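Repro:
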Amino acid sequence: MMNVRESLEVLSRVRGSDDVVVTNQGSARIWPLVSQHPNDFQYNPSTMGGAIPLALGVAIAQPNREVVVVSGDGALLMSLGSLVSVIGSGCQNLTIIVLENGIYEVTGGQRTPASGTALDFSTIASGVGFTNAHTFDDLAAWSRHAELMFETQGPRFVNLKVGPADRQDLQTPAEVAAEQIHRFQTALANH
């Protein structure tokens, strides 16, 4: 398994200057430690499972810009139907990155129902129509793939097998929602 913060640092290095990154739950607390960009939206406090639909809406509204959503495996389990919505939309500028650690990290570390099972998120994504669906548990392999990721047609699905986050990384205070929404809307409008 990979270190979650190091995995997100890879994404922060390869994202384009116009790319939007939406995070939620645990990733919304870690992402501000690796990226401070006007096009970042930390969807936190968040509705578990709501980040993928939110990012899909942004991708549809902003078809000339790449949108990346980082969500956890627990959140994806709450909204597996969102993968079907992504494919059904025909959207090609969206990348879903799932951080799979087998726990509901921000609510106390309880195991997800899928923990310890044979569930394979990339297989599910492929099954609903993602032609670019990959799983990584090695940082070097993820780094190599990430360098070329946006050269392939989307939508893209990436499952990163990570360990639990450092507890200190989960203590990042959330930006005031109204300020973040205003900043994000301004950034999107200026594109």
